[in-house]
């Protein structure tokens, strides 16, 4: 029988915990907000992950979302609130907890299966992609939309995006392109594709397992999995274009390479990419590219530590206030017409980009301190 663990239920109604034998199912439970991660949720999830690692009777974690989304990212409405209060420390605390959670998930000693139904964006990727099994389906919509908000792909995205085939990670991280379940599987962001009408059967089977053996868990998911075809128009079918353009050294060169491709390609992919890049914050684009490139040679912990420095600079508005402008345009005034500053790519100099990687100049500020973990930092192995 399904049992809701009363302790956690009382503590954290935004994250429900269901206990079935050796399985614990964590349900993101803010369906009206598309399960956007509040600080209570990241704190609650972190507590769950830490305590279930200790409990020998718990062998498998399932993470899923209630309603039509898995999770639409960090709760940007909460941020808009904190901006009004004129304090960057709220954001820094939120990210400290969130990135620690991402790190615990990436180095977790027990298997995690994330059931990626519906929207998976930003912080939603952070609580799933670092885990062992990511099950996509036909209604999954994945995106890292941060450059449109004046932010950059964080939550350890510079680790997993930089490990996608070729320069697909640069494409996904800079343009905020939306991927469907088949594309997620094809690029390695998802490990499995299970049809929506078989998801609940999969979940029931997983709730009966009494093992942490990843091969056994994989065997169960395999029984429900399919190999979907990637749509003809998908960027996955245009990897030669993606690689040619997104391998360029600078954002300006990427845009110029896309513009050269545009007359030759009938597919909307190239024009849509140019449009997204032209609309995004120039500063965000440049720091995102630098972050993904740097991430290629770093461990997940190193990526998160560097991203924490970056995000604190963003929250403090040290070199640009684009994030506040993005929140204003998208959340507060909802005019969807942000005025980025600096407004053009050529005005965002390499020296400033480099400063996002430096320590924050504040006596109270500390680098992200991640615990020593016994399990190795797992690598996401792209399937192509
Ligand atoms: C494409 C979406 C996912 C779905 O569109 P839709 O189907 O037309 O649905 P709605 O847009 O009507 O969303 C339903 C409700 O969910 C809310 N919502 C939908 N995503 C969200 C959301 N990330 N937050 C907070 N309410 C939301 C949305 O505001 C709305 O609330 P309401 O108007 O009151 O009905 C759309 O909602 C959307 O673009 N959401 C934002 C995605 C996004 O940019 N994600 C965040 C990336 S950045 C990030 O993760 C960092 C956050 C951060 C966190 C803490 C900090 O201190 C600093 C930063």
UniProtKB/TrEMBL annotation:
Keyword Hydrolase: yes
Pfam family, one: ECH_2
EC id: 3.1.2.4
Sorted UniProt keywords: Hydrolase, Signal
Domain Enoyl-CoA hydratase/isomerase: 24-357
Enzyme class, UniProt record, top EC level: hydrolase
Biological processes annotated in GO: L-valine catabolic process
Coiled coil, from the record: none
Signal peptide span: 1-19
Annotated metabolic or biological route of this protein: Amino-acid degradation; L-valine degradation
Molecular-function GO terms, alphabetical: 3-hydroxyisobutyryl-CoA hydrolase activity
Substrates-to-products reaction catalysed: 3-hydroxy-2-methylpropanoyl-CoA + H2O = 3-hydroxy-2-methylpropanoate + CoA + H(+)
Assigned protein family: Belongs to the enoyl-CoA hydratase/isomerase family.
Free-text function comment from the UniProt entry: Hydrolyzes 3-hydroxyisobutyryl-CoA (HIBYL-CoA), a saline catabolite. Has high activity toward isobutyryl-CoA. Could be an isobutyryl-CoA dehydrogenase that functions in valine catabolism.
NCBIfam families: PRK05617.1 (NF004127)
UniProt-recorded name of the protein: 3-hydroxyisobutyryl-CoA hydrolase
Organism per entry: Aegilops tauschii subsp. strangulata (Goatgrass)
Phylogenetic placement of the source organism: Eukaryota, Viridiplantae, Streptophyta, Embryophyta, Tracheophyta
């Amino acid at each position: 029988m399904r049992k809701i663990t009363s302790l956690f239920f009382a503590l954290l109604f935004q994250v429900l915990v269901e206990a079935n034998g050796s399985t614990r199912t964590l349900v993101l439970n803010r369906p009206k907000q598309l399960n956007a991660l509040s600080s209570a949720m990241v704190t609650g999830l972190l507590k769950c992950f830490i305590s279930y690692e200790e409990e020998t009777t718990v062998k498998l974690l399932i993470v899923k979302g209630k309603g039509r989304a898995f999770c639409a990212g960090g709760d940007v409405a909460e941020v808009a609130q904190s901006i009004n209060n004129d304090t960057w420390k709220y954001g820094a605390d939120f990210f400290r907890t969130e990135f620690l959670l991402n790190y615990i998930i990436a180095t977790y000693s027990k298997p995690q299966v994330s059931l990626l139904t519906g929207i998976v964006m930003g912080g939603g990727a952070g609580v799933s992609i670092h885990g062992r099994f990511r099950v996509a389906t036909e209604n999954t919509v994945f995106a890292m939309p941060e450059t449109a908000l004046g932010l950059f792909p964080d939550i350890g995205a510079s680790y997993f995006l930089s490990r996608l085939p070729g320069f697909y990670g640069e494409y996904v991280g800079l343009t905020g392109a939306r991927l469907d379940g088949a594309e997620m599987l094809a690029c390695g962001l998802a490990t499995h594709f299970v049809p929506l009408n078989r998801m609940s059967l999969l979940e029931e089977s997983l709730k009966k397992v009494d093992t942490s053996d990843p091969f056994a868990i994989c065997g169960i998911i395999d029984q429900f999995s399919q190999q979907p075809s990637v749509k003809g128009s998908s960027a996955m079918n245009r990897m030669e274009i993606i690689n040619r353009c997104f391998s360029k050294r600078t954002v300006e060169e990427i845009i110029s390479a896309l513009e050269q491709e545009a007359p030759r390609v009938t597919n909307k992919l190239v024009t849509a990419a140019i449009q997204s890049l032209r609309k995004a914050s120039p500063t965000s684009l440049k720091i995102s590219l630098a972050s993904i490139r740097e991430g290629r040679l770093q461990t997940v912990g190193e990526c998160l530590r560097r991203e924490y420095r970056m995000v604190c600079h963003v929250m403090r508005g040290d070199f640009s206030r684009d994030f506040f402008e993005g929140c204003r345009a998208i959340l507060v005034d909802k005019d969807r017409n942000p005025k980025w500053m600096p407004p053009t790519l050529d005005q965002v100099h390499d020296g400033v980009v480099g400063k996002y990687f430096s320590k924050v100049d504040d006596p109270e500020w500390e680098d992200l301190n991640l615990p020593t973990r016994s399990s190795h930092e797992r690598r996401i192995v792209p399937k192509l």
